[in-house]
Amino acid sequence: MTTSLLDTLRGGLIVSCQPVDNGPLDSIPAIVGFALAARDGGARALRIEGADNVAAVAKACDLPIIGIAKRDLPNSPVRITPYLEDVAALAAAGAHVIAVDATMRERPVEVAQLLAAIHSHGRLAMADLSNIEEARAAHAMGFDILGTTMSGYTGGTIPEAPDLAFVTACKALGGFVVAEGRYNAPVLAAAAIAAGADAVCAGSAITRTEHVTGWFARAVADADRHRDETVLAFDIGGTKTLAALVRGATVLDRRLMPTPPEVGSPGWFDAITELAGDWRGQYQLAGVAVTGLVRDGLWNALNPKTLPIPLDTPLAGELAHRLECPVLARNDAQAAAWGEFQFGAGQRLDMAFVTVSSGIGGGLVLGGRLVEGARGLAGSLGQVQGGLGDLRLEDRASGFAMSTSASEAGLPADTRQLFNAAAAGNEVASGIVNHAAMRAAVAVVDLQRLVDPEILVIGGGVGLAPEFQVALHRSLEGFEARLIPRVAFAALGADAGIIGIGHLAQQSQLM
User: Fold this and answer.
1) What's the number of CA atoms in the CB half-sphere (13 Å) around residue 156?
2) If we measure between CA atoms, which residue out of 70, 90, 73, 91 comes closest to residue 81?
């Protein structure tokens, strides 16, 4: 029986059908209903408290049952199946597995005695554990199942996240491991399997309606409280710096200036914050979107030609000190991607965002979340090289690149004048624009191959120029139809970055 039952549980979900004590669903009919619903939803087994409940569920449902009995004892913190008579009652009621608190705490009956009693009734024994020392002892005793149930519940503040490291440590001992305790979302249950669990037990998120309702109610209340919050937003590029007061998708006020020299110096930070000096008191948090690489509040250059940033500039910390409020820092293209996803052309689809401006950047929003990557590099299309030693895309197709090519050809080093010249029939200007557009087209087709987003949104001063858009579309027509992205142009225009960083800053306060 041991092997066949464990094989049934392996790779499956166990649902703990334990309503809130004395709540409106704390009745045998409700518990049986939960059990049948869990079965119909694909559960492999049930965890049921109390002999009467076990007997009722066993009669109505054919799933294996992990039975427990809970008691509040005056002289012991142990609550789960503390007595031998509890084991006997659960076995008689039809439990296939009996779980006991196997923590190393003061108790009325020794763990070894409970284990022996469970096996004497021909049932499998599950140890509810809080740490690896207890797990080693339970494994050595001969428990059939090791459960992480008690991790975080034997003293101190209860953590929010489940103990995945404990799952991995238990699995290293050998035997069958059930991950249990705060697995209240599908992604966490999946993470437990990846961490080594043979099965996962979830309860509150499925059968404690009061808890789930509370989670939703708190989330809605928090979102409502922050919805109308005004955020101070900065968008700092290689040539221009924009400061704005943002509320949702609305820009309430804005200021623009050339990006100051001596990036990252005290004077530079002073100049940035002075741009918004008289707005003090109108915001409680700030966000800053910048060209370059941002990770953990530290700012570094991706391409020093665009903006020479000193190594590990403490961007968020310096601004927070001067502004006297929390500051969230992100890459400007990633922030713009989020703005277009939430409020613009992204339409809340899986999307890639590419900005062609003085430099070239990008961002990805997949599965409803901004993808930053392990190092903050996700979406950095402008830094891609065609081959070893080749120039980056940014050095071939950006506004800076086109201006440089124009200057070398004896034309004004200005993209607007370059576009005008191309529109007027200047072949040299047209060649520069077409060359840049073709490079960009190759890059976005490669991006489609790699990520395959539902939509590609293009923004930036160059990307939104009609002459560049025409040249890009013409270049894309040379590829197979299945490789050509579904292209849309940024609906928020130059405001995508400040709107995106404003919304991200608001979200950070809800985490």
Assistant:
1) 6
2) 70
For 197, the token pair is 């669990």
Q: Which residues contact residue 190 at a Cβ distance below 8 angstroms, ignoring those fewer than 6 apart? A: none
Give the pLDDT confidence score for residue 510 in this predicted structure: 61
Residue 1 pLDDT > 60, yes or no? no
| Distance of alpha carbon 145 from alpha carbon 167, whole angstroms | 12
How far is CA 209 from each of CA 21, 65, 205, 206, 221, rounded to the nearest angstrom? 12, 21, 8, 7, 18
β-strand partners of 147: 128, 178
What would the two tokens of residue 210 be? 């009061």
Domains of the chain as residue ranges with CATH: 2-214 (3.20.20.70), 231-334 (3.30.420.40), 345-490 (3.30.420.40)
Three-state SS string over 345-399 comes to CCCCCCEEEEEECCCEEEEEEECCEEECCCCCCCCCHHHCECCCCCCECHHHHCH
C-beta neighbour count of 151 within 10 angstroms: 28
Q: What per-residue confidence (pLDDT) applies to 227?
A: 63
* Residue 208 Cα to chain centre, angstroms: 25
User: Can you tell me whether residue 257 is helix, strand or coil?
Assistant: strand
Separation of alpha carbons 246 and 224, rounded Å: 16
Using the structure block, give the residue that is written with the tokens 């119909």. 40
Query: Is residue 277 over pLDDT 60?
Result: yes
- Whether 338 and 353 have beta carbons less than 8 Å apart is answered as no
- In single-letter form, the type of residue at position 12 comes to G
Sheet holding 487-489, edge to edge: 369-371, 360-366, 351-356, 455-459, 487-489
Query: How many Å is the maximal CA-CA distance in the chain?
Result: 95
Name the nearest CA neighbour of 462 among 408, 504, 428, 422: 422
Mean pLDDT, rounded, for 462-487: 95
Number of helical (H) and strand (E) elements in the chain, helices listed first: 19, 20
Quick check: 217 and 472 in contact, CB under 8 A? no
Sheet order of strands, 285-290 included: 250-258, 240-247, 231-236, 285-290, 327-331
What pLDDT does 112 receive?
98
What is the H or E stretch that residue 239 is in? Answer: none
